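Q: What would this chain look like folded?
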Amino acid sequence: MKFVKNIIESVKPHFEEGGKLSKFWVVFDSLETFAFTPGHVTHNGSHIRDGIDLKRTMFTVIVALLPALLFGTWNIGDQYYASIGQDAELIDKVFIGLHKVLPLIVVSYGVGLGIEFLFAGMRNHSINEGFLVSGMLIPLIMPVDVPLWMVAISVSFAVIIGKEVFGGTGMNIVNVALTSRAFLFFAYPKQMSGEIWIHNVGAAKDAGALVDGHTGATALGHLAGTVGKAMDSVEVTGIMSLFAEGGMFSLHNCIIGNIPGSIGETSVIAIAIGALVLIVSGIASWRIMASFLAGGLVMGALFNLMGMNAYMTIDPAHQIVMGGFMFGMVFMATDPVTAASTNTGKYIYGFFAGFFSIMIRVFNPAYPEGVMMAILFMNVMAPLIDHYVIQANINRRLKRLQTT
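A: My prediction, written as structure tokens:
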């Protein structure tokens, strides 16, 4: 590291004021402070001293995302080889996955950071680090077959409209990654309809497989097809068999994650590892996670009591391990910028986010993934929740003063 530090120090004068590359100071500064502790000092009295800054926080979240990223990369290859009925080594499955995942990550970071650099230069301030996480989250919540140009457009929309117009990192009112997905959902619904593309490479032609690939419905895509149909119909019975023990979308398979789905959302185990990292490091709120989980289970239990259609009969535990529920609970709902800030508010915010997630996906099959809509709605409601929580605390203290 000392060697790298010496190189940075040797080129630093060229980027400082008066240097040949001074126009690119914000880029150099962001790279330097990401690798090493910033040399900046406060001009006023500092009230909080901590060894962790925003860059270190964002890096920890990236580490927490790695299990979901790695599993999702493997799962793409596993789904492909399963689709053509062939066994394959781990490295072969990972190679297929990288073929699809890496371009999405490159486009997400390339477009997002490019816009960040542009706005930092225009405003003459250091580059915000928030997109380090958003740039990874966006590919993980996308279907693997989404066109790269759509990813570029959605990232541009999310960064500019969802964040920069509000002032940049820390000022946005809705989650940037979910804003990107929401944009694609409403602008290009066909690509976000619950169908997942399974890759077939050219080598599979001899095996009689499709040349490019084929689509198959996700767990929620299948269940959405049962709404409005008789529970004892042959079609519904066949769909529900997929969720029974031994079926493609059994509780066991949904927990492991070897099912079709968005890249980072299928494996509950991988997501749980990430949750443990975030909770132990103190970066994410366990209150939001716990209440989010409780809200989903309560809504699932209420649907079981109603039992109006086959979708409502899904066990609550099975409901929460399908789709993006767990991923949204751990990595989206806990965003400290857009979530509630008070402890009591976190319980309220998380509970209703989980509650509405299950409600939306079951009541409205047009939204096969209700987590996105639920979290975005609660993002907007978070300031109001905090307002009333704080006001309630003030009222209680006033009453105590009046009684004394």
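The chain is about 60% helix and 0% strand.
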